[in-house]
Amino acid sequence: NRPVSEPAVIGAWNAKLDAAGISSQVLIDGVEVDDPADISSILAKVTGRLINFNAGVAVASRFDSLHLDLEPQGSPAWTGATPAIKRGLLEDLLDAYTAIRNHLDTAGLTSMPMYADLPFTWDKLPAEGGSIGWADAADRDGWFTDIAGVLDGISLMTFSKDNYADIDAAISYERSGAFTGKARLGIQPKAGPGFLWPTILHFNSVMNDCESAYGPTGSTDLEN
Predict the structure, then answer these.
(1) Is 102 helix (H, G, I), strand (E, B) or coil?
(2) pTM higher than 0.90, yes or no?
(3) Which residues in the chain show pLDDT less than 50?
(4) Is the dihedral of CA 30, 118, 125, 189 positive or negative?
(5) What does DSSP say about strands 220-222 and 25-30: parallel, antiparallel, or unpaired?
(6) Contact 214, 182 (CB under 8 A)
(7) 97-114 core/surface letters (b: 16 or more CB in 10 A; e: else)
(8) In the 8-state DSSP scheme, what is residue 80?
């Protein structure tokens, strides 16, 4: 909530990023996309932390885009749910993205880019062991087409994958053009005992493999 409670501090930070040629995105999260009250709360955060904040600071101090981490897989409705219910929750997620996009447009931020985090597993069909009750491939493809209509890009969370081959396979569907916006790799550089990567050198090695394949800029997000 610091764009609301400490706007001068956040504005100064954004100005430093702007001077360095770095885009600043405000991150807003949520889980209960099937709950109108939760959606109202998210829209209120977008209003305070992005719309009102940007209106109150100089251009260089503004956020450049909105990044959403809406994870229905963390909601009570998802726990123990059938594949069909999970499919319905993804429709709720699409509705949430659409509501947020409309909220920005109504505020005059029609050119404000909007990005979101997605699990890499959602593209798998039931026959492939996927947990989402897609009716068929066309149903899945249609959903990705629909979210591309309101999102400028997605970051695919591959936080359980520890080698390039598995990472590349995990995000191949979205990067193949199934998602028409920017489909980026999301990867966590958490290294040491108890983490996925034994050392930061192991992470760096896989990171280099990914950058060699996808390009060193514009293709990878480091999370945390």
Answers:
(1) helix
(2) yes
(3) none
(4) negative
(5) unpaired
(6) no
(7) bebbbebbeebebeebbb
(8) T
pLDDT for position 214: 87
Contacts of 181 (CB under 8 A, 6+ apart): 148, 151, 152, 153, 154
The DSSP code for 48 is I
- The identity of residue 177, as a single letter, is G
Indicate the SS3 state at residue 36. helix
What confidence score (pLDDT) does residue 217 get? 64
Residue 201's identity, in one-letter code, is L
Q: What is the pLDDT of residue 181?
A: 86
- Residue entry with tokens 């293709």: 219
- Residue 7 near residue 56 (C-beta atoms within 8 A): yes
Query: What are the pLDDT digits (tens) for 61-111?
Result: 999 999 999 999 999 999 999 999 999 999 999 999 999 999 999 999 999
143 φ/ψ angles, rounded to the nearest 5 degrees: -65, -45
Reported in sequence order, the residue ranges of the chain that DSSP labels E, i.e. its strands, are 25-30, 65-70, 114-119, 153-157, 182-187, 220-222
Is the C-alpha dihedral spanning 80, 83, 88, 92 positive or negative? Answer: positive
**15 close to 7: Cβ distance less than 8 angstroms:** no
**Residues 159 and 188 sit within 8 Å (Cβ to Cβ):** yes
